Structures
1.
Amino acid sequence: MQTLVAYVENKPGVLNRVSSLARRLAINIDSLTVGPTENEEIARMTIVAHTDAKGAHRLEASLEKLVEVLLAENISERSLLERDLALIKVAADQQSRPHLMDLLKVFRGRVVDVAPDSLIVEVSGTVDKIDGLLEVLRPYGVLEMARTGRIAMTRGGDLLQPPAAEPAPAVAAKN
Amino acid sequence: MKLTGAEILCETLERLGVTDLFGYPGGAILPVYDALGKSKLHHVLVRHEQGATHMADGYARASGKVGVAMATSGPGATNMVTGIATAMLDSSPVVCITGQVGSKLLGTDAFQEIDITGITMPITKHNVVVSRAEDIARTVREAFQIADSGRPGPVLVDITKDAQQASAEFDWEKSVPKLPAKRKRARYDQADFDRAIELLNTAKRPLILAGHGIMISGAMKAFSEFVHAGHFPVAMTLLGIGAFPANDPLNLGMMGMHGEAWVNHAIQEADLLIAVGMRFDDRVTGDLRTYAKSAKKIHIEIDRAEINKNVKVDSALVGDAREVLEQLIPHMEKKERPDWHGRIKEMKGDSAVRDIQSLPDSGHLYAAHVINDLWKETNGDAIVVTDVGQHQMWEAQYYHHNKPRTLVTSGGLGTMGFALPAAIGAKFAKPDADVWVVVGDGGFQMTMCELATIVQEKIKINIAIINNGYLGMVRQWQEFFYDKRYVATPLVAPDFAALANSFGIRGERVTARGDVVSTIRAAREYKESVLIDFRVEQEDSVYPMVPAGASLHEMIRRPNNPLVETATEP
């Protein structure tokens, strides 16, 4: 599994180009998240792909060939922080609810909705942590789940910022 | 100045230096055609939109400038797909402009509406829909910039009809391209550069693999200096032909599936390969597991995505070929390497014996004879535009190009039907050049409708059909790998000379070797286009041949006594 971060222009069709490229390279995407950045014209993607380092290099280099991709970087080998967020609707009645609450404490999950027969749990963390929580919730009956997919950021001073816009150079007609 | 979108488009193209464009009108592009009539642009009416894209491509390859093709929405646009993909695979700067239905109708399956940007996404370097007149000038300028920069490629601009009709302020100064600010990567680090120098100066059996990128970057001079500075032997890719003179003693010829035997052996024996502007395509490497196993590799390449894609390299110098070569040249130590050059010469001597040109004249007309005579008669100075198949390989083997951009051929996609329209484009790019089409009887029948374009435009092109009555290359594969079961390869063709006549073009037929030179000579002297139907040996094959997937040194060689099974009917 390889993790890439890309800064892209926040425009219609860009997501399509990115995912179409992965398809063309026969690389299966495990998760792809897109969100705005502090600059509203730029979005940030975290792409987690089923491939090896060579495939990740091709994906990274090919992504940067897309006009709307400002930067793509394989950060798999770097020290990084990864987070996934999940909303899990789990069956819960009078008897099971206290047990569930105890479990959630261990996983630092939060109950965000309570209904007579179910709860919605919000949990964030590494993929392993969420998978771990799911494992223990399953016996109670997981009714529905939504996960965001991973977002990732390199640690400390290892910054990955979008390239600064520069004034467009006057282009002489070459043709 | 207030202009309609259509007028803005024409004005922008003119200011970008466009003089000729190739297209076909239709409903959704009509406003542009109306404006074209009032502009200084010369529009070439094609007979099929695929032809328009090949013409723009041929124009681009012969000149190095951006070629422009135009079509209407729907089927006009989809007919361009093959031509766009051809340009993409061979990194050719082409801008395609398509009309689109009005922006209010987008996504409604309106008459002749098709999602052409969706269709062409993987076969363009970039594409874009424009639905506002005020965006046309900037977008088209951006398209030219993208098509022509870095590793070139086709760009498609789809303009809605309402954008063509609406009026907007046209201001050239304000419509400068505004492409997004991309990260600037360090091209390569010092360690890679130092390693390259060390490899170059210590190699005992170095060999350069010269590709298309040399021509694209205009690196011919730097490349020649580099080659002579290190006294390196040079092998050419198909698209690299012309980047380094064929008559230079250091030029060994073409590599790969139908490359010269001594070249492929030299690659396998080399201890250093220096790849310049080429991408280790499977047609030049053969089986990657056995490819140049004893060689270290240096890869000079502008596209970072090509590095380590097929062949793992020891030093990657990502950048423009000319810039990188110019940086390397001062560090080169001239080495004579007599053993290595002697070894190559020895291998070459062995191979030349099998060459068809060395065989006694049996009275049969071989394609190789035709190409060889064409080369001699044109002093190697013609722009030769080939199609795809056996004749293409024979051209590469027997026509010796000394100048860049004189061989125009579809390499990566291998598009049959390319030659005739691409030659028309090349002729517009180089009106004074002697342009020859070398095409098979199969490929010619795919786009022969463009003969009418030649006549309508009153241009002079010479067409040599290498007619063997088969889809020859496929037949060759059937002969070698399918026990001569010739399924769907015998090919009925019209009388090409008579066909040419019906278009108003002079047609000739040649069946004997003795008539080749005189017919070529007469065609060159004739002021209008001439088509020559060369009836060549039907079941001849291209040698040597590395079977697909085999190792590069495992070549099928021409038998000592070539099978002459059938003579063509006169």
2.
Amino acid sequence: MENLTYSLVQIVHNFGAAGVVGGSVFALWPVPQAPSTLRRLAWLVMFSWTAQIVSGIGFGLTSLYFYGLLPDIHGTAVIALGIKIAAAVTGLVIISLYLGRLGAWTDVQRMRLWSVTASLAVIALTAAAVLRWYS
Amino acid sequence: MKVTLRFTVALLAFGWGAAIAAEPSVTISAPEDGATLDVMEQNQIAYSVTPGPKGDHVHVYVDDAEVDILRSLEGSYTLPSLEPGQRNLCIKVVNRAHVPIGVEDCVNVTVE
């Protein structure tokens, strides 16, 4: 049951990571997408950031449920986790603002916003790798 | 039929043996409990671990603060500089999510 729970949380987390990176990068590359496609991608990225945050909390809750303890991490791993959380929360806020004011952005602003979102996704994924091996 | 029976017995015996082999444990072989360590030395902790089915690797603790991760299940680890006084050294088995699963060994030492 424990392994199954961790696995289910991990599945959500992995697909969340795939969604934020894939959705953000595809918005810009190989060609900048049309506004209607960007809107759909923004929903995907918002859903994916939410999945990342919720499943991240899920890892902690799973550990609390089965062992009454949170994961024991220290040093570099704590910094990597902090970066990952900051990137996820910032990414979620930015993409929510984007969706909330869809008509308000110029093309330049829109591309800048997607560049920031893609950068945050890459930062979060990189921090995840550091967190994995320094803890 | 005989082959099937032999196979079943062998499978059960293997499963029973594997279950025994998988009994999780941690043994700190050095320093001994109550030992005195030299504050100027690079002190090491020697250990061997059987992680069991739920364990994955181990963490090292000094006075309940995690100081490092050990992925080798047997060997020795050079401890960071220890402050003089009574110190509690522990090695705990953790799962893949880095949560201590309750399998550990600890020693109390005096650092002078």
